[in-house]
Design brief:
alpha/beta, 7 strands
Amino acid sequence: MKLVVVSAGLSVPSSTRLLGDRLAAAVGRTAEGPVEVRVVELRELAVDIAHHFTNGFAGRALAAAQEAVTGADGLIVVTPVFSASYSGLFKSFFDVLEPEALAGKPVLIAATGGTARHSLVLEHALRPLFAHLKAVVVPTGVYAASEDWGAEGLDGRIERAAGELARLMSGLSAGRPSAGRGPETGAVGGFAGVVPFEERLAALRV
């Protein structure tokens, strides 16, 4: 299967690229067959994207990236948060794709930011964008704030989202775990480590 990571990270090294790489590695571990991964770094295509807006033609590098995205079995799209939304470069790349290029394609959305306050960017910006492009967006998006790196919780979200994407790429339902990969013992709704609501209420009555 062909998996393409679209990263809008601008710095080197980039936490946005790092998140994309970790998600891709998790998809590779979860998928039932071999996964061929290609990374599209949008910062390297910024000039080509701008030229496409003004002359209507994709340069060689941009055309190759568009072809890779269009031909992929699944996408991981990762953007840093700028002004409470995706970056302009990230949006511009998808603006110059053919309108039906992502129709029916499984897409895992992810974002990075300096604070957890922007975590809803996945739901109010990225998910509507890819729904408009007729992509099939996996249920779990992954947001990583600065304090999430090395902290408990991020690894679990990465594995869960990657599993959902891998199942969609295999033509399965994202919400139906493969045989032998059911929810962990003691998990609530598939979320390990979640304290049942009844236990929280009981603790308040003591």
